[in-house]
Structures are given as C-alpha cells and as structure tokens.
C-alpha cells in the first residue's frame, strides 16, 4: 500500500465512495477530529494503568476507526445501486453504546459521589483523559453540525456523547487509582 498518492496535492480528498471534497469540508473535520481523539486515547492506553482499562480503550479505539469510516461515507454513497451496503464493516450500534454505559456505571460504582465540578489535572494520565474528553466533545459538535447539514447515523452522535462521559469518569477513576488529588471547582465569591 503506497502511503502517498499525490491526489490531495490540490487541497481535496476522496470520501468513501469516491466523492472528492475540500480538505476543510465538515465531513473531513468530523472524522479528522475522531482520528485525533483516537490518538489521544492511544496516549492514555500507553500509560501505567490496569489491563482491563487498556482492553476497554483498545476496543474504543477500534470502534473509533469504524465511526470514522461511517463519517467518511456520504449518505448518497452508503449503498450500491444493487442495494448492498458499500461500507462492509460492522457499524457503531446500540451494543457499542451499551458497552460505554456499562463501563461508566462500573467505574462510577467505585467512586465517591460528585458534589462539585472538578478541575482537570492532578496527574499526567488524568490530564490526558481530560484532553481526550475535550477532543471528543469537539468531534461531537462537528458531527452534530454535519448531521444538520447532510445527516449521519444517529448512533455516531450517541456514541461520541457517551464516550466523552466515559473519559470524564475514567479521569475520576484514575485520579482515585493513582492517588492523585481531585480538585473541586469552587467559584470565588464576588
């Protein structure tokens, strides 16, 4: 597989199905941000954390590749003229979303209740979780805008929404595991 094709040298790229669009197209921004998110999740996975969390993060990274492929496929190119799906891979579905919800619930059961917002930080690994959460929220905002423009699979939006929650709870769990300080946000009185 050749890494460079030279087909994007003039500022366009091909979506799945062959349609060429500018590299700043909202669809490209959406799946490009998902790719950025996937890299940050890899950074979290590379930290000194437990194997079960690493396994969950690997599963999430694989699902983000699927989600990116779904975003890279414009609605008019999702099926062939024969009616067969063009993107012949498993899609993000309710089971993908349920996995995140179960992981969130399992982590939350081990944490003290939240009484305040928390400031990102306390440990480098925790900070990586918060950076990933913010990138996830950006991917979600871009995908919502894309959905308003062209329409996308609603499971993509639900998955990104749940994933940002997962990353927040993972940050709290790792704060506890790493014995870092969770700093509450308490607004100063005027």
UniProtKB/TrEMBL annotation:
SUPFAM superfamilies: Cobalamin adenosyltransferase-like. This is Corrinoid adenosyltransferase. The keyword Disulfide bond does not apply. Its EC number is 2.5.1.17. NCBIfam families: PduO_Nterm (TIGR00636). Transmembrane segments: none annotated. It comes from Tenacibaculum polynesiense. GO terms for molecular function: corrinoid adenosyltransferase activity. It catalyses: 2 cob(II)alamin + reduced [electron-transfer flavoprotein] + 2 ATP = 2 adenosylcob(III)alamin + 2 triphosphate + oxidized [electron-transfer flavoprotein] + 3 H(+); 2 cob(II)yrinate a,c diamide + reduced [electron-transfer flavoprotein] + 2 ATP = 2 adenosylcob(III)yrinate a,c-diamide + 2 triphosphate + oxidized [electron-transfer flavoprotein] + 3 H(+). Pathway: Cofactor biosynthesis; adenosylcobalamin biosynthesis; adenosylcobalamin from cob(II)yrinate a,c-diamide: step 2/7. Keywords: ATP-binding, Cobalamin biosynthesis, Nucleotide-binding, Transferase. Belongs to the Cob(I)alamin adenosyltransferase family. Pfam families: Cob_adeno_trans. It comes from the Bacteria. Residues 3-173 form the Cobalamin adenosyltransferase-like domain.
């Amino acid at each position: 597989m050749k890494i460079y094709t030279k087909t994007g040298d003039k500022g366009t790229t091909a979506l799945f199905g062959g349609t060429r669009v500018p590299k700043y197209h909202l669809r490209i921004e959406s799946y490009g941000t998902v790719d950025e998110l996937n890299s940050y999740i890899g950074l979290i996975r590379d930290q000194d954390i437990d194997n079960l969390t690493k396994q969950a993060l690997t599963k999430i990274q694989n699902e983000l590749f699927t989600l990116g492929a779904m975003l890279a496929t414009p609605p008019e190119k999702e099926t062939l003229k024969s009616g067969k799906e063009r993107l012949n891979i498993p899609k993000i579905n309710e089971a993908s979303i349920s996995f995140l919800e179960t992981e969130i619930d399992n982590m939350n059961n081990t944490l003290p209740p939240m009484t305040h917002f928390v400031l990102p930080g306390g440990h480098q690994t925790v900070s990586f979780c918060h950076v990933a959460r913010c990138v996830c929220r950006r991917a979600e905002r871009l995908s919502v805008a894309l959905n308003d423009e062209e329409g996308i699979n609603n499971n993509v939006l639900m998955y990104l929404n749940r994933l940002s929650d997962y990353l927040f709870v993972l940050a709290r769990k790792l704060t506890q595991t790493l014995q870092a300080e969770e700093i509450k946000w308490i607004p100063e009185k005027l």
